[in-house]
Amino acid sequence: MNSAIASTSLEVTTVKLLIDGQFVESQSTEWRDIINPATQQVIGRVPFATDDEVKAAVAAAQRAFATWKHTSIGTRMRIMLKFQELIRLHMERIAHTLTAEQGKTLPDAQGDIFRGLEVVEHACSIGTLQLGEFAENVASGVDTYTLRQPIGVCAGITPFNFPAMIPLWMFPMAIVCGNTFVLKPSEQDPLSAMELVELALEAGVPAGVLNVVHGGKQVVDALCTHPDIKAISFVGSTQVGTHVYNLGSQHGKRVQSMMGAKNHAVVLPDANREQTINALVGAGFGAAGQRCMATSVVVFVGESRDWLPELVEKAKTLKVNAGHEPGTDVGPVISAAAKARIVGLIESGIKEGATLLLDGRGVRVPGYEQGNFVGPTIFSSVKTDMSIYQQEIFGPVIVVLEAATLDDAIALVNRNPMGNGVGLFTQSGAAARKFQSEIDVGQVGINIPIPVPVPFFSFTGSRGSKLGDLGPYGKQVVQFYTQTKTVTARWFDDAPGTGVNTTIALR
Question: Where is the Aldehyde dehydrogenase domain (predicted)?
Answer without folding.
Answer: 23-487
